UniProtKB/TrEMBL annotation:
Matches recorded under Pfam families: BPD_transp_2
Membrane topology: Multi-pass membrane protein
Keyword Transmembrane appears in the UniProt entry: yes
Keywords, in A-Z order: Cell membrane, Membrane, Transmembrane, Transmembrane helix
Protein known as: ABC transporter permease
Keyword Glycosyltransferase: no
PANTHER family, per the entry: ABC TRANSPORTER PERMEASE PROTEIN YPHD-RELATED-RELATED, RIBOSE IMPORT PERMEASE PROTEIN RBSC
UniProt-annotated location(s): Cell membrane
GO CC term, one of those recorded: plasma membrane
Regions that span the bilayer: 17-40, 52-72, 78-96, 103-124, 130-149, 170-195, 226-244, 265-293, 305-325
Main localization, broad class: membrane
GO MF annotation terms: transmembrane transporter activity
Length: 329
């Protein structure tokens, strides 16, 4: 065996590894970023700062979890953040009007589930492109947010079920942890199990990889896609609950870039925009990469515009890597 052949086989095995474990590359990037910022700043690895970064990643990370399911089916959702904001407004408005917190929470989540059901039906039954459908919903829901709120933020003045996820406790006596972090971890574990251990999860990957082949193998493609948008709608409703836990104030102008940030986290986490490949673990890492990058650059005194430039460059690089990986496979 020649040295060239051995080197080529080494590259091939490395490429196959990253194809089988798309979260490995993002995890290495996250570790590298944390090492760099810990050496460049004085308080990056302090427990309070680490807890704050995780807390800042919660809402976008939850939005990205639902976005991952949709992108795995070769779709995309540009309206997820607007739907989430509508959920926060409905919860806060109903609660302010005298409805008990649990009922307001359930109704807010049902609204986001309903939005997911309508979008999924339009994509499957009417055969409209997900990009166009969700772009239209993004425009409509952004306007609906302002109409529901009458142009003003709706505060949640009483501590209760709507703000419960923001309650902070100290793990092992010194690590600040909120209930929202625990709920987010549970959601990721549930979705991970559903994707990797159930027939539904196998169908999601199969539809994203090749919808026609999935149909010929007996998979109900339309039913699978609709179920994905409904589950994502549920997750976006829980993201609304997360948002009220972090800041008990439903603002129609909040999370205006949440849709793009969620897509960024998914792409950085190694999920392919072309569907059929990716993992929720990678998405969790991707959401943390975005937060770590913003926090580290802020502590270094880098202007927020340059932070956006760096994040955008990372997204483009991640898509290029995914494209090359698909060609190789």
């Amino acid at each position: 065996m020649t040295a060239v052949t051995a080197e080529r086989r080494t590259h091939d095995s490395a490429g196959e590894f990253f194809l089988r474990a798309p979260a490995a590359g993002p995890a290495l990037a996250l570790i590298l970023a944390m090492i760099i910022f810990s050496l460049s700043t004085s308080r990056f690895l302090e427990l309070d700062n680490l807890s704050l970064m995780v807390d800042q990643a919660l809402v976008v990370g939850t939005l990205a979890l639902g976005q991952t399911l949709i992108i795995l089916t070769a779709g995309i959702d540009l309206s997820n953040a607007s739907a989430m904001v509508l959920g926060t407004l409905i919860m806060a408005k109903l609660f302010a009007g005298g409805m008990p917190g649990p009922a307001a929470l359930i109704l807010g989540v049902l609204v986001t589930i309903g939005i997911g059901l309508v979008i999924g039906s339009l994509v499957t039954k009417v055969k409209l492109p997900p990009f166009i459908v969700t772009l239209g919903f993004f425009t409509m829901l952004t306007a609906a947010d302002k109409l529901v709120a009458s142009g003003q933020a709706v505060p949640v003045t009483e501590h209760g079920v709507l703000t419960w996820l923001g309650t902070q406790r100290y793990l092992f006596g010194g690590i600040p942890v909120t209930y929202g972090m625990t709920v987010a971890l549970v959601m990721y574990l549930v979705v991970w199990y559903a994707l990797t251990r159930t027939a539904w999860g196998k169908h999601v990957y199969a539809v994203g990889d090749n919808a026609e082949a999935a149909r010929l193998s007996g998979i109900e493609v339309n039913r699978t896609v609709i179920s994905v948008y409904v589950v994502a709608g549920l997750i976006f409703g829980l993201a609304a609950w997360q948002a009220l836990g972090r800041i008990p104030n439903a603002d129609p102008n909040a999370f205006q870039l949440g849709n793009l940030q969620s897509i960024t986290a998914v792409v950085l986490g190694g999920t392919s925009l072309f569907g059929g490949r990716g993992s929720v673990l990678g998405t969790m890492v991707g959401a943390l990469i975005v937060t770590v990058l913003q926090s580290g650059l802020s502590q270094l005194g880098v202007d927020s515009l340059y932070q956006d430039l760096a994040t955008g460059a990372l997204v483009i690089a991640a898509v290029i890597v995914d494209r090359l990986a698909r060609r190789k496979s």
